[in-house]
């Protein structure tokens, strides 16, 4: 059977079927691919998930650090949830992502929340990260967002599932971390008042 033109493109992946959770997830680490890097470590992922209530992590079976392929490059994605597994994707080795189109307002806001910086050069857009900001983005947004998808057993539509995962990442990632205070302090604006 040929690929339907109406079906979305899904990049190749090593999908993991659920074997039943014993309460402790496994980490599968693939090499990131030439010119790419994983921005968090298995130890960092374990430590971050250990900060959450155990009931949130219990159904998780696998966190896979996936490799980048040419086909996946045409489907930009930081992470994905499928079944009881979370897949984390590598990004460019120099931590600069290239985009042919202008970012949507939500993309600008989300990157800024974690310290990413959008730059326009002619018609080309770049998203620049430091090692610390991309780590924060993955641990407190991408990882927690994908876990939110795994835990969402109520919503069926794509829009509702995304809305829930975004709320989950804000509540249990962005707002719940000590890093939130550091991000807030870094963005504090001092306003000067003039005497009348």
Protein model, in words:
By secondary structure, this protein is α/β, with parallel strands linked by helices. It has a domain at 26-93 and 135-170. Helices cover 37% and strands 17% of the residues. The protein contains seven helices and nine strands. The strands form three sheets. Strands 1-3-5-4 form a four-stranded mixed beta sheet, covered by helices on one side. It has a three-stranded antiparallel beta sheet with strand order 7-9-8, with helices on one face. A hairpin with a 2-residue loop joins strand 4 (79-82) and strand 5. The model is unreliable at 1-11 (pLDDT under 50).
Q: What is the strand and helix layout of this fold?
A:
Blueprint: E1 26-29, E2 36-37, H1 42-50, H2 54-57, E3 62-65, H3 70-73, E4 79-82, E5 85-88, E6 91-92, E7 96-99, H4 105-113, E8 117-121, E9 124-128, H5 131-151, H6 158-174, H7 178-186
Parallel strand pairs: 1-3, 3-5
Antiparallel strand pairs: 2-6, 4-5, 7-9, 8-9
Helix pairs in contact: 1-5, 5-6
Short synopsis of the structure:
By secondary structure, the protein is of the alpha/beta class. It is built from seven helices and nine strands, in the order ββααβαββββαββααα.
């Amino acid at each position: 059977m040929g690929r339907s033109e109406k079906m979305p493109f899904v990049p190749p992946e090593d999908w993991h079927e659920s074997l039943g959770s014993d309460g402790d997830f496994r980490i599968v680490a693939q090499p990131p691919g030439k010119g790419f890097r994983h921005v968090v470590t298995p130890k960092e992922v374990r430590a971050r998930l250990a900060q959450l209530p155990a009931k949130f992590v219990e159904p998780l079976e696998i966190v896979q650090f996936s490799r980048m392929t040419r086909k996946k490059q045409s489907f930009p994605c930081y992470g994905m949830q499928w079944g009881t597994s979370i897949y984390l994707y590598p990004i460019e080795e120099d931590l600069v992502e290239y985009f042919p189109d202008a970012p949507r307002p939500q993309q600008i806001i989300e990157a800024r929340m974690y310290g990413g910086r959008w730059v326009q050069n002619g018609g080309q857009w770049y998203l620049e990260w430091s090692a610390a900001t991309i780590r924060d983005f993955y641990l407190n947004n991408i990882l927690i967002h994908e876990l939110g998808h795994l835990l969402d057993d109520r919503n069926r539509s794509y829009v509702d599932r995304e809305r829930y995962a975004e709320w989950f990442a804000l509540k249990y990632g962005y707002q719940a971390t000590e890093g939130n205070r550091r991000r807030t302090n870094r963005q504090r604006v001092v306003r000067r008042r003039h005497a009348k």
